[in-house]
Design goal:
The protein is mostly helical. It is 71% helix and 7% strand. The protein has a single domain, classed as Winged helix-like DNA-binding domain superfamily/Winged helix DNA-binding domain (Arc Repressor Mutant, subunit A), CATH 1.10.10.10.
Length: 147
């Protein structure tokens, strides 16, 4: 394979990833808006729901958010009454984020809607196709430099 072909293949791969990402977010946008959530808010709620109380740094690492974006997301989730910031029981100097009862209800109420929307998007793929896509994307992610 010559350099020009490799360059074109790399550029085509980048465009395929970006366009798939954009199309996925466009498809999910109405689902999030109907629940009065943003994708970043759902990512934070779902992560806290699955992992339990987390420091802001741990939540930022797990959601792949930037500190500036996550600060706004957390502020809005706290104002909505879905998340609270409390003192860490082990290290009293540290603060952790956790779901409030209203936040837990939001996760529990939205999860079936979210899962249904994902099924509408990915339902035509076979289990093997999903596994292969996950495997390939994970391989790609592992080859990328970490910030």
């Amino acid at each position: 394979m010559n350099e020009t072909t490799r360059d074109r293949d790399n550029q085509t791969l980048v465009l395929a990833l970006l366009r798939s990402h954009q199309r996925f977010h466009r498809a999910m946008g109405p689902v999030f808006r109907a629940a009065d959530l943003t994708p970043s808010q759902w990512d934070a709620l779902e992560t806290l729901g699955n992992k339990g109380a987390l420091s802001i740094n741990d939540l930022m690492r797990l959601t792949l958010s930037t500190s500036g974006n996550l600060d706004v997301v957390i502020k809005n989730l706290m104002q909505a009454g879905f998340v609270e910031k409390t003192v860490d029981e082990v290290d009293r100097r540290a603060r952790v984020l956790r779901l409030t009862p209203a936040g837990r209800r939001k996760v529990d109420d939205f999860m079936p809607t979210h899962n249904h929307a994902l099924e509408q998007i990915f339902g035509q793929l076979t289990k093997t196709q999903k596994y292969q896509a996950i495997k390939t994307l994970n391989q790609l992610r592992k080859k990328l430099p970490q910030p």
